[in-house]
Amino acid sequence: MATATAIAKNTRTLGAQRAEVSALTTYDWVALDKRGKRMKGEMAAKNASLVKAELRRQGMNPQTVRERGKPLFGATGSSVKPRDVAIFSRQIATMMASGVPMVQAFDIIASGQKNIRFKNILIDVKQGIEGGASMHEALAKYPVQFDELYRNLVHAGESAGVLDTVLDTVATYKERMEAIKSKIKKALFYPIMVLVVALLVSMILLLFVVPVFEKTFKDAGAELPLPTQIVVSASQFMQHWWLLVIAVIIGSVVALVMAKKRSVKFAHFLDRVMLKLPVIGNILHQSAIARFARTLGVTFHAGVPLVEALDAVAGATGSIVYGDAVRQMREDVSVGHQLQLAMRQTALFPNMVVQMTAIGEESGALDKMLFKVAEFYEEEVSNAVDTLSTLLEPIIMVILGVLVGGMVISLYLPIFKLAGTM
């Protein structure tokens, strides 16, 4: 009961903290400095009075303080992307390595942020650090933007006195992970968009072009070949039921997404199916191994204990199947098994990965071996994605030819037949 009460209290506290940050408003100010020179700038605060007080504290005489107007199409920076966090990590690591105090570094980075939401988060984190909290404690208020892995690495860096080095490593890690995800998305985006355009063109032909040809064929009294009859029947169906077809397509996509979110079993099943697909499945396998190796290498190198590192790594693989396997590995390692033995039991990791992990454990250079594994599989993913793009081009041409080209040819078959009888 006490535990439940504590959890509820922490939840309310976290909610209040988030509400407090969302209440921060950006103000544009104009003030006179000690020389009487006109200065202007911007500041995030709860109200205009606090902005004026801060300006006076800095030795300036505030003239005007106005709330910045909201953009026409909503607030700027509605979400904080992983790329934003990577850039922030690189910036603060560079500043701290150059001797800039942490609080001042947060101030400088926040003032240059175009994403208002992230800017407010950085200001609030800075205020938490000024209040005596460590960086990882201040970041804990924002678990969505700074996940458990990120906070654990920061905590390890603070404990070892090498926070700037760890943050630089984190920035490199996030940049690499985003590069892998971006490349995979880019490879899949092109064929998906081509197929969507092909379907749209087919629907336009069926709804607007085929009916004109159908009327012409009826007026000419021509006997329609089988391909043309199929296209005409499809056109008649679409004219009567096009709303139903669109509703079924959209409903199927929404149902698939909702089922994946709400059903763990379905999400697990879908992930297993994706991993078994030809070409794409291999890319997903390699990507999950690369993420696992890179993430575990970074956390272990930062000084995080192996069991805790595996706990944080489970959610970073990008795969439910691999995530479950890493959690099982954590259980095995926690009772005394070697990491390489725990990896072998999952039957998911190639023998090369297991052997390199074993060498790393025996030589005391596990992090270095994991980095080598990550580099190898990141390169493999890059090559596989390039190969996928090459393989998909002829497949896309065939699909386009069947969908659009076949439909156009079937419409002209009766015309060719009529021309041959004349």
Quick rundown:
This protein has 422 residues and is mainly α.
Per-chain topology:
Blueprint: H1 2-22, E1 25-32, E2 38-45, H2 48-57, E3 61-67, H3 82-97, H4 102-111, H5 116-130, H6 135-139, H7 148-160, H8 163-220, H9 226-262, H10 264-276, H11 280-301, H12 306-313, H13 320-334, H14 339-346, H15 351-363, H16 366-421
Antiparallel strand pairs: 1-2, 1-3
Helix pairs in contact: 3-4, 3-8, 4-5, 7-8, 8-9, 8-11, 8-16, 9-10, 10-11, 11-12, 11-16, 12-13, 13-14, 14-15, 15-16
Please, could you describe this protein's structure?
By secondary structure, this protein is mostly helical. It has helices spanning 2-22, 48-57, 82-97, 102-111, 116-130, 135-139, 148-160, 163-220, 226-262, 264-276, 280-301, 306-313, 320-334, 339-346, 351-363, 366-421; strands at 25-32, 38-45, 61-67. Helix 4 packs antiparallel against helix 5 (116-130), helix 14 (339-346) packs antiparallel against helix 15 and helix 15 (351-363) runs antiparallel to helix 16 (366-421). A three-stranded antiparallel beta sheet has the order 2-1-3. The N and C termini lie far apart (92 Å). The chain has two domains: 82-176, Up-down Bundle (Receptor-associated Protein); 177-421, Receptor-associated Protein. It is flat. 28% of the residues are buried. 76% of the residues lie in helices and 5% in strands. Residues 88-211, 292-414 form the Type II secretion system protein GspF domain. The chain crosses the membrane at residues 187-210, 241-259, 395-415. It comes from Dyella tabacisoli. This is Type II secretion system F family protein. It is found in: Cell inner membrane.
